[in-house]
Automatic annotation (TrEMBL):
It holds the Pfam family FMN_red. GO terms for cellular component: cytosol. Belongs to the SsuE family. Isf subfamily. Its cofactor is [4Fe-4S] cluster. GO terms for molecular function: FMN binding; oxidoreductase activity. PANTHER family: CHROMATE REDUCTASE (PTHR30543), NAD(P)H-DEPENDENT FMN REDUCTASE LOT6 (PTHR30543:SF21). SUPFAM superfamilies: Flavoproteins. This is NAD(P)H-dependent oxidoreductase.
Length: 195
């Protein structure tokens, strides 16, 4: 598994981000499973609002981010839930990508909410990934009530920490899985072609 690369993309720009902490735990588990694991922190990338008339290599760090994703065997997407969906920084990052970055790539999903479980954010991410012909891990991690989820930098609930670690382990385990056939949505997703 040493040649497996797992990258995590953090859709939160917040300094004290529970999403980032959760992604770090998932990536630590991937690392312990023998992968080369790396966090891609969107705070470090210049990603202007997506404009389909602008070439990706003329859009700040969009091409650099896409290249990092193309080189990954598995990707873990992490986002806080905002207004029932995932965060706009992650949406912008995904808009700069397409089939070349995600087709037949294993993707794990993680979402964080200040209140109830972030189910709709996970559903929206799953739909986007499926339309790009990614293979989305059935197991997903959800952190609810994020204001009380951490105690001294660790998750207060050991079963939640284990669920997050399982996501990281499965990203390694399924990095080379034979993907599902193309979906109906992927045939309709012409915007993702050639990004």
């Amino acid at each position: 598994m040493a040649d497996v690369t797992v990258v995590g993309i953090c859709g939160s720009l917040r300094e004290e981000s529970v999403t980032r902490v959760a992604l770090e735990r998932a990536l630590e588990a991937a690392d312990r499973s023998g992968a080369n694991a790396e966090l891609l922190d969107l705070r470090e990338y210049d990603l202007p609002p997506f404009d389909p008339d602008r070439e990706r290599d003329a859009a700040g760090d969009a091409e650099a981010l896409a290249a990092r994703l193309r080189s990954a065997d598995a990707v873990i997407l992490g986002s806080p839930m905002y207004h029932g969906s995932y965060a706009s920084p992650l949406k912008t990052a995904l808009d700069y990508c397409g089939f070349e970055e995600f087709e037949e790539t294993t993707v794990g999903l993680l979402a964080v909410s200040g209140g109830a479980f972030p189910v709709t954010a996970l559903e929206h991410l799953r739909s986007v990934c499926r339309s790009l012909n990614a293979w989305v891990i059935p197991h997903q991690a959800a952190v609810a009530n994020s204001n009380s989820a951490l105690e001294d930098g660790s998750f207060a609930d050991p079963s939640l920490e284990d669920r997050i670690a399982t996501l990281g382990r499965q990203a390694v385990q399924y990095a080379a899985i034979e993907p599902d056939p193309d979906s109906f949505e992927s045939d309709q997703n012409v915007g993702a072609a050639g990004k």
